[in-house]
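Supplementary Note 3. Input sequence used for the single-chain structure prediction.
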Amino acid sequence: MADITRLRPEEQAVVDAFHRLYYPFFGDTRWMGVEAQKCPFDLFVYQELILELRPDLIVECGTASGGSATFLASICQLVGHGEVVSIDIDNSAGKSQPLHPRLSYVQGDTLSPDTLQRISELVAGKQCVLVILDDDHNRDHVLEELRCYGRFVTNGSYLVVEDSNVNGNPVLPEFGPGPMEAIETFMQQSNEFEIDRSREKFLISFNPKGFLKKRGEARHGPSQYEAGVPAPGEDLLQKLEIIKLQARMMNEMRLKLESMQRDKALMENSLGWQMLQRYRGLRNRLLPANTPLRRWYEQLRLRLISKD
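The predicted structure, written as C-alpha cells, is reproduced below.
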C-alpha cells in the first residue's frame, strides 16, 4: 500500500503535478448518471470506510447535485446497512435531487441551531456515525463545523474534511485560508481526533490530512450475512425498498396537501374572498343563470378580458 508520508520530494512533485492537471476535470465524475463532485479515489476510500465501519448514519454537509450522497447510499445498500442524511442551505434544485430509500435531505445552514438540533436527534442512539464536511470551504466556517459536528462522530469513526487541497495544497493557491488551515487549528485545539493519512493510499486525494479518525474503539454490529442470518431474496429486497420509497413519497404528498388545506382556509377567511362571495351572490340574484341578460353579461366580460 502506498504511503503518502514516505514519498521523496521528486515523487511528491509528480503527484502534485498530476493533481493540478486532473483537478479542472473532476466535475465530470458521475455516479448513476448524477454529478458527483468528488475525486474517484476518494469515493473508493469512502466505499472501504462504509464496509469497514458499517455506519448506522452518514451525515454529509453539502449536497450540490446529490451525486455523492447517492453514491454513499448505494454503498450502504450493497452492504445492507446504514442511511445517509445530506444537508444543504440551498434547495433550489430540490425537485431534481435524486431519490434513494436510504437517503434523506435536510435544508438549512449546517451551523444553525435548528439544523444542529435535527442532526442531534438523528444520531441519538446510533452506534456508528460518519460525518463528511463538504459545503462552505472558508476556514472559519469549516473550523466551526469541526467543533460542532465532531461531537456527532462515534469512537473509531471518521470526520472527513473535504477539499483541503485548495489554497495551494496543491491546487487553487489564490483561494485563501480554507479547510487545511481549519484542520491545522482544530488539531491544535482538540486531542479527540488523529489524522489518518493511510486513507490517502491512492496518492491523489482532494482531502489531504482531511481523514480525521476519532480516538477510541469503533463500535458496529456485524452485517446480517456475517451474523449468519439468511439474506432475503433479491426480489423481496427490491420490493421492500420500493415500499419504503412509496411511503416517503406518500408522506411528502400528505404534507403538501396539509399545506394546501391551510392556505385554502386562510384564503376563505380573508376579507377579499368574503367580498368576492358577496359579489357573486348579488350577481346571481340580479342576473339569474341561463337568461339572455346573463349571457350578454358573460359575453361582455369575456371580450373585456381578451382585450387585457
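Residues 4-231 form a domain with the Rossmann fold fold (CATH 3.40.50.150). DSSP finds nine helices and nine strands in the chain.
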